[in-house]
Specification:
alpha/beta; Helicase, Ruva Protein, domain 3; five-stranded mixed β-sheet; two-stranded antiparallel sheet; 10 helices; elongated
Length: 219
């Protein structure tokens, strides 16, 4: 028995290849290390088989069937997300965000009644992400249609977020659309999704024209 323990200890800290493979897959998730992955896997092993199968099927179904709204790029169950399909929303007001997490955060405030445009990322040269890698061209196409009167830039107050804001502002200058930016109630360097609802809600309500904000930042 001691020889057996010594054998697998030298090759792997896990007594089962199946366990090791599952831990390695969970550890690939953001913010999940090997110890956390092991706890999650052991938790699943203690559950009824039906619960584990339902968990696995939900993940597979998500990947295979989830859609992206053809209008705003938000995650949806249908071709047009519930927000874009809601006739009570202000279609002339569009909030530009990085991803679905920002949509969820802003919706929780209950302060924004317009539509959204999900970029799917922000410009980050150091990561090899340029304007063509995110949904800026589709945003410009929406503006060209003429329904949008105001764009609210609600990207995180980071260097990458500010770079993306400025690029969008310059790109849309030839078009007759007002571009504003959320008030800096969200501190520099903060991520939108982590801002509390009151602060984020006030930042949206107290938004300012982008050109005025840019002039102040340049002084």
């Amino acid at each position: 028995m001691n020889a057996h323990i010594s054998h697998y200890s030298m090759n792997s800290p896990y007594p089962s290849t199946l366990l090791e493979n599952a831990v390695n897959e969970f550890a690939k998730l953001p913010g999940i290390g090997k110890k956390s992955a092991l706890r999650l896997v052991l938790h699943l092993l203690r559950q009824d088989e039906v619960k584990v199968v339902n968990f696995a099927e939900a993940i597979v179904k998500l990947k295979q069937e989830v859609k992206y709204c053809k209008k705003c790029n938000n995650i949806s169950d249908t071709d047009l997300c519930e927000i874009c399909a809601d006739g009570s929303r202000n279609k002339s007001l569009v909030c530009v965000v990085e991803n679905i997490k920002e949509v969820m955060a802003i919706e929780r405030t209950g302060q924004f009644k317009g539509l959204y445009h999900v970029l799917g990322g922000i410009i980050s040269p150091i990561d090899g992400i340029g304007p063509s890698d995110i949904e800026i061209a589709s945003l410009e196409e929406r503006v060209k249609i003429g329904e949008i009167e105001e764009l609210v830039l609600a990207l995180s107050a980071t260097m990458e977020g500010d770079t993306t804001n400025f690029y969008i502002f310059r790109k849309l200058q030839p078009h007759n659309v007002k571009v504003s930016i959320i008030a800096r109630g969200v501190s520099i360097g903060d991520e939108i999704e982590y801002a509390d609802e009151v602060t984020l809600g006030r930042s949206i309500l107290n938004r300012t024209p982008f050109d005025e904000s840019y002039k102040l930042a340049s002084k």
